[in-house]
C-alpha cells in the first residue's frame, strides 16, 4: 500500500521528535551536522533537511529525486519509511535486503550505526 506524502511527512516529523527526546547515546550519534535526504521511490518525492544537534531541522519536500547531493542519503518506499519509524521494520535487515538504501561517508556510517 503506497502512503501519501503527508503521512510520510508526519512520520519524518515523528522521527525528528524521537531523536530530540532520545537518550544520550542515541542523541550523541545523531549530533552530526549533516544535510540529509530521503527519496521515497514509490511517490517519486524527496524530503530534505539538516541533522543538527540530534534533531532534524528545515524539513522540505520536492518532487523527484534529490536535486542536490546530501551528506546522508536514504531511499526507500513510503511503506518502509513508516514501518521503520513505527518500529515494525528493522533498519539493518531492510538495508541488508535492499529495501532501504543508505549512502553516507564512512565516518558518518560509523556514527549513525547506533541509530540503526
From TrEMBL:
Sorted UniProt keywords:
Coiled coil
Q: Name one Pfam family in it.
A: SCP2
Boundaries of each SCP2 domain copy? 29-103
Is the keyword Coiled coil in the record?
yes
Q: Which InterPro entries match?
A: SCP2_sterol-bd_dom (IPR003033), SCP2_sterol-bd_dom_sf (IPR036527)
Q: Which domain of life is it from?
A: Bacteria
Coiled-coil residue spans = 5-32
Q: What is this protein called?
A: SCP2 sterol-binding domain-containing protein
- Species whose genome carries this gene: Streptomyces zingiberis
Tell me the lineage of the source organism: Bacteria, Bacillati, Actinomycetota, Actinomycetes, Kitasatosporales
